[in-house]
Write a structure and sequence with these properties.
With about 675 residues, this protein is of the alpha/beta class. Helix content is about 30%, strand content about 25%. Helix 2 runs parallel beside helix 3 (about 80-95), helix 11 packs parallel to helix 12 (about 350-365) and helix 15 packs across helix 19 (about 570-575). The chain is globular and about 75 Å long. The chain starts with a helix and ends with a strand. The relative contact order is 0.09.
């Protein structure tokens, strides 16, 4: 019997020797799905009811948390029968399953561990993956695997296993005692760099264990708390072993930087980070909040049916291939008991599920249009530098006055300030890690990079940015960008690598006030906390205060740099008014903005628009988070394009190029 078992394993390995190829869920339109929470006590009939309801509501995909603790018996044998019921029902109703192994952990651990405890633990994980993969790959309903639930976040475990991995990593990543300029390294970002690589190693290891036995199905993972954890995620490396990338975007857990009115914008920003991370791979939102969180989560809330529509259309307009809600049915016990569900306690669809079903119907009735739709690129790129987020986590200690820039989050909120500003202009912008930007092109005319308060930048990035600008790119730099190098040295003291690029150096930064104005070429822009005074070299002064330059324009080759070492993005964010910043940006980024196919004629406070293109047609998704009905004039570059409303949940209208949209309404318009 043992010989037969070994032979079967060998055959599986041989059959799985080919690389994984990404599949496509048919039809090739954005899918709608939900997590089916499987636990002991559920009957086959009840499970079947859930899958039948998904089918009736046009849901085509599900995710199942595959609890090792519900499969592994005390005698060491395996009982998969509980989950077999779910996979059989999925086959019956044509639902595709993403299996998410949930490795044995404490009963109170609702999210799962992120790193192995020791070698024995690692081997037990490998055994579970083998048993689970060999068994469930026989089901035609299996579509793919989610490697681990929400990797990363938090501190590294203080275990001998982690210590040994750190020692191995250190052999090829030598810790510096002094810089090349002779300055001592008193603080560094060494542990953060290790955690990034350690997390990548663990995910790759899990993927390798699965593909030993099954390389026919998708390999996926969902990051979480993106605005806090993104520096820990090395997406370009992940692409090498994934077939798709995903994320969790729960407003209750992950949107603590925002008010509820900003949740739609936060979803857009979160989606842009994942889209960039995926690169050429497909991406989808692996977890969207489906229902009420009563006692769990950071902010108790129940999404409205209008918010469900907003989130789904925003992810779709950001090239997501679909959305999976957490969850379909509530779990029976534990911290999240009775929470998060799309179904009520009588297993009837909630108004939220009905709203999602209506959107699924819209996808189906416009299949050709959405199958080819891609987000329109504006050429504007907001880049975050992971070292800046790491540096802030070490240096920011808050303040008695509770200044935003002194708290953890100031770096990311500065980037998000610009993101929200462009959103209120109706303009798509990229939001990506510095390493995800392509610096290898021969021409960057029409391309813009914005570095908003990126406080720590490796000196080596200066060459990349100089190449970008010299080949026609435009660079906007604000805040304390480049204040530290990657070793947390103050660059103005130890040699400013960006002096040639920025067109000068800093004489000093001064704290001014929580909010004050910076005057640049006749524009008074809200600014937060610090003002940087520039000692210009060959650059042109375009803003001054106290008789000194506070903003300069510098030409490098075919491009230019606009350097304003004060916090404009965060200033407008704190003031909750982007009108002045948008007037400045609209003037500064012409003629590029004029080339965008469809945008707002003027700033629309608390409104966002995202635009897609499908062949010669365009699709605009407009979300009104204002408390009043908005009448919005659009600039449409091609006067021959005529609008048709594909979807609206509150009966707004469009006449010519004027949209009338109600509070909380989402309107989707086709232009052809």
């Amino acid at each position: 019997m043992r010989t037969l078992s070994i032979l079967i394993s060998v055959i599986w390995v041989l059959l799985s020797s080919q690389p994984i190829k990404a599949q496509t869920i048919e039809p090739n339109i954005p899918f709608v799905g939900a997590e089916v929470f499987i636990e002991p006590g559920q009957t086959p009939a009840e499970i079947d009811t859930w899958f039948r309801t998904m089918k009736e509501q046009h849901f085509t995909v599900c995710r199942i948390r595959m609890f090792e603790s519900y499969m592994l018996k005390a005698d060491g044998s395996w009982d998969f029968s509980l989950f077999d019921n779910a996979f059989r029902s999925a086959e019956k109703y044509g639902i595709k399953v993403f299996a998410n192994p949930f490795y044995y952990t404490e009963k109170t651990d609702i999210g799962g561990f992120k790193y192995p405890r020791d070698e024995a633990h690692l081997q037990s994980i490998a055994q579970f993956l083998k048993e689970m993969t060999l068994h469930f790959s026989q089901f035609s309903s299996l579509y793919g695997y989610v490697l681990i639930n929400e990797p990363g976040g938090g501190s590294l475990p203080k275990t001998d296993f982690t210590k040994r991995k750190f020692e191995e990593w250190s052999k090829t990543h030598v810790r510096k005692e002094f810089t090349s300029k002779g300055y001592p390294v008193l603080m560094d970002l060494y542990e953060q760099a290790f955690q990034k690589d350690y997390g990548t190693w663990f995910l790759k290891w899990i993927a390798g264990e699965i593909t030993k036995y099954d390389n026919k199905h998708e390999i996926h993972v969902n990051n979480h708390a993106m605005f806090q954890n993104c520096a820990e995620y090395d997406f370009p490396e992940w692409r090498k072993f994934l077939t798709s990338l995903g994320g969790s975007a729960h407003a209750s857990w992950h949107f603590g930087y925002f008010t509820r009115q900003q949740y739609a914008m936060a979803m857009s920003a979160n989606s842009e980070i994942v889209r960039s991370g995926a690169g050429e791979l497909p991406w989808f939102m692996t977890e969207l909040q489906g229902g009420n969180n009563t006692y769990s989560g950071g902010s108790p809330m129940c999404p409205t049916k209008e918010e469900i529509a907003q989130w789904m259309w925003i992810t779709t307009a950001t090239n997501a291939t679909g959305n999976i809600f957490w969850c379909l049915n509530p779990r029976s016990s534990g911290i999240e008991a009775g929470e998060w569900a799309l179904l009520d306690f009588q297993n009837q669809p909630s108004d939220r599920m009905v709203a999602a079903a209506k959107i699924a119907e819209t996808f189906s009735s416009n299949a050709t249009l959405f199958a080819k739709a891609k987000e329109v690129e504006s050429g504007i790129n907001l880049l975050y530098v992971r070292q800046s987020l790491w540096a802030e986590s070490k240096m920011a200690s808050g303040s008695t006055q509770d200044y935003e820039a002194r708290d953890k989050g100031g770096v990311m909120k500065s980037v998000l300030g610009y993101f929200e500003a462009f959103s209120e202009m109706g303009v798509n912008v990229n939001l990506k890690a510095f390493e995800e930007f392509d610096f290898s092109k021969a021409d960057y005319k029409g391309q813009t990079i914005i570095l908003a308060h990126q406080i720590s930048i490796p000196d080596s990035y200066a060459v990349l940015l100089e190449n970008f600008v010299s080949k026609g790119g435009k660079l906007l730099v604000d805040g304390l960008t480049g204040f530290f190098d990657e070793n947390l040295h103050n660059t103005m003291k130890t040699g400013f690598a960006f002096e040639k690029l920025f067109g000068g150096n800093i004489s000093e930064f001064k704290l001014v006030d929580n909010l004050f104005n910076t005057s640049i070429e006749g524009n008074n822009l809200p600014t937060h906390l610090w003002r940087g005074y520039i000692v210009p070299s060959k650059s042109q002064t375009i803003g001054a205060a106290d008789g000194k330059a506070v903003a300069v324009r510098n030409t490098i080759g075919q491009g230019e740099v606009l350097w304003i070492p004060s916090l404009l993005g965060l200033g407008s964010c704190i003031q909750k008014d982007y009108s002045a910043l948008n007037l400045f940006l609209n003037k500064e980024f012409q003629p590029g903005l004029s080339a965008i196919p469809i945008r707002f004629t003027a700033t629309q406070k608390n409104v966002l628009m995202k635009t897609m293109q499908s062949g010669s047609k365009f699709i605009t998704v407009i979300v009104n988070k204002a408390t009043i009905v908005k009448s919005i004039e659009l600039i449409v570059f091609n006067p021959k394009l005529n609008p048709t409303i594909l979807y609206t949940n509150l009966h707004g209208s469009i006449s010519g190029k004027t949209v009338k949209i109600k509070p909380e309404e989402t309107m989707v318009i086709q232009w052809k």
